[in-house]
Amino acid sequence: MSARPAVAAQVVNRWLRADGTLDVALLRGQFPILQRQVNGRPLVYLDSAASAQMPLPVLAAVDHYHRELHSNVHRGVHTLSQQATAAFEGSREKVRAFINARSVREIVFVRGTTEAINLVAQSWGRQNLRAGDEILITHLEHHANIVPWQLLCQTAGARLVAAPLNARGEVELEALQKLISARTRLIAVAHVSNALGTVLPVRDIVQLAHARGIPVLLDGAQAIAHEAVDVQALDCDFYAFSGHKLYGPTGIGVLYAREALLRQMPPWQAGGDMILTVSIDRSTWNDLPWKFEAGTPNISGAIGLGAAIDFVESVGRPVIAAHERALAVRASAQLQELPGLRLIGTAQHKAAVVSFTMDGIHPHDIGTILDTEAVAIRTGHHCAMPVMEYYNLPATARASFGCYNSASDVERLIAAVARVREVFN
User: Fold this and answer.
1) Domain 60-313's class?
2) How far is CA 176 from CA 170, 190, 345, 387, in A?
3) Catalytic residue IDs
4) Would the pLDDT of 212 be above 90?
5) Fewest CB atoms within 10 Å of the CB: 45, 291, 314, 320?
6) Contact 355, 196 (CB under 8 A)
7) Residue 349: what pLDDT?
8) 12 to each of 17, 28, 166, 303, 416, how far by Cα in Å?
């Protein structure tokens, strides 16, 4: 056994009680923002699906870079540049290990999931899509996994096809399979729905696609912080995620892609660092992954992402998943007992996301009243308008859980939602 797992096992114990459950009070001490008050009450933060809060190790890593290492990477022989480069590329290795990619050459730093998907659309897509071809998605997708493909299809003369939902908010494998045709060139689906929390059968989707020689892109923005992601086990061709969903900084994300695909793909953006040689007549490209990282990158963001990965692994992804799942089940059960409340999305396999509506009350009003109780949730269409259209809703209220949430947070949520009914009655 290597030294890394042994160290991880020792660190995990720090966050566990004697009975093996997560010591939330101890963990919450790592998140300074959770100590503040909103409207005179202690903050209950239930919007981790939008952005998870950052723990002290992440804040310290970013601060250390800006105070002690700030310099451009890859371009300097002086000490600061060398140290910044080592920290930046060290984070790339942490990402590789975290998702079990084969090589750091398969890890491209981007601004977030949205940029990762656009990179694939504009590089792989423009090279491979032709008139009459099809891209298959689902009605569960975030706009970031819809609009880039729409733009690509408009340019190429191709067609975007979407697999339907059922009443529980699930994508049934059989329905998706029927839409795979001889014209399907790519399947791009969410690993976990941001609007409903539905966990899609991505392993089965990849197997169906690969049986026909079709590559698969997985939008992992909502999965990466809540369950183990092994890109080799998933066998996907592309996997995209954002740092700020993973207790890291904003403005940093990752595109994983098979090395063979990246070598065939042309650069999407051009400029410094993605080149080997430049003349007036022609240029040659840098090796992977830097061929896709034009210009000065988000150095502190990448370093912060590496620290976030260390933090998540110190707690343990199975521990986090079990804790969040228990909170979501508890919240769902108690919300359903409130009169006039309807849960939206009741898939058998769900992440820690609970979306709901209340009869006669707009979700924005729900969110506003909850804010007066210092309970922060998300309201709106969640950048998933096709989901809202399916349920014939303008919006939903969404509570989403992180490793730092507790049973008392659930009780505060239930009390605040009950307060909404009192106000409107």
Assistant:
1) alpha beta
2) 11, 13, 19, 16
3) 383
4) yes
5) 314
6) yes
7) 96
8) 11, 15, 39, 22, 34
Length of the chain: 425
pTM for the model: 0.95
Q: Is the peptide bond before 267 cis (omega within 30 degrees of 0)?
A: no
Q: What is the mean pLDDT of the segment spanning 297-304?
A: 98
Q: What is the DSSP string of 89-114?
A: HHHHHHHHHHHT-S-GGGEEEESSHH
Our measurement of the distance from residue 266's CA atom to the centroid of its chain's CA atoms, rounded to an integer in Å, reads: 25
CB 260 within 8 A of CB 152: no
The confidence score (pLDDT) of residue 378 equals 97
Ramachandran sector of residue 144 (left: φ over 0; alpha: ψ -120 to 50; beta: rest): alpha
CB 244 within 8 A of CB 52: yes
Note the CATH number of domain 3-46+316-424.
3.90.1150.10
Helices (H) and strands (E) in the chain, counts: 16, 17
Domain boundary assignment for the chain? 3-46+316-424, 60-313
> Sign (positive/negative) of CA torsion 69, 70, 75, 79?
negative
- Measured CA to CA, the distance from residue 241 to residue 5 in angstroms comes to 24
Share above pLDDT 70 across residues of the chain, in percent, rounded to a whole number: 97
Give percent of the chain above pLDDT 90.
94
Query: How distant, in Å, are the alpha carbons of 344, 352, 416, 419 from that of 332?
Result: 10, 10, 14, 17
